[in-house]
Amino acid sequence: MIVMIKGKVKYPITLDPTVWIFDDRKIKLEEAFELKEDKQEEYRGFQKPPVNRSISKMEGEEFLKNSYVMPLNDFIHNAEPTSEAKTAKLVSGSDVSYETIAYEDLINGYFLFSNNGKPLKEDGPVHFYYRDGSNQDNPVKYIKEIVID
Q1: Is the pTM of this model over 0.85?
Q2: Are 75 and 115 in contact (CB under 8 A)?
Q3: In the 3-class helix/strand/coil scheme, how is the chain assigned residue by residue?
């Protein structure tokens, strides 16, 4: 249930989407594609989300009902891609198939990591959505790693 970020980066990173449910940067799936630019920047403004914040019972119940996406910008920037980065391969499945997308689409995109409060065990660990929601009905599934080219 992990996702690697590697390729033309200074720091390869391993992501664990199972802990994102506690991350303040997460966005409800149904709200993600409706956010205006200023609200997007608010979500991207977290450097170190609180990890010891108490979660109320009501919040915990909400986490178990909703579907959430995580903006990718912070993770990609933390990997420090080289100036040569132009594309990214979203590698998926055991047969190592991939979909190539523009680097800008990657940093502006989202990973769905929770569907109705549950990790994506069947077709996960994450699904990729373009920021504009253009692939909302057909996201890239089974993503195991991101290779920045």
Answers
A1: no
A2: no
A3: CCEEEEECECCCEEECHHHHHHCCCCEEHHHHCCCCHHHHHHHHCCCCCCCCCCCCHHHHHHHCCCCEEEECHHHHHHHCECCCCCEEEEEECCCCEEEEEEHHHHHCCEEEEEECCEECCCCCCEEEECCCCCCCCCCEEEEEEEEEC
Residue with tokens 């997308």: 101
Per the CB < 8 A criterion, the answer to whether 4 and 16 are in contact is no
Write out pLDDT tens, residues 59-112. 656 667 889 999 999 999 999 999 999 999 999 876 678 999 999 999 999 999
Distance separating alpha carbons of residues 78 and 44, to the nearest angstrom: 12
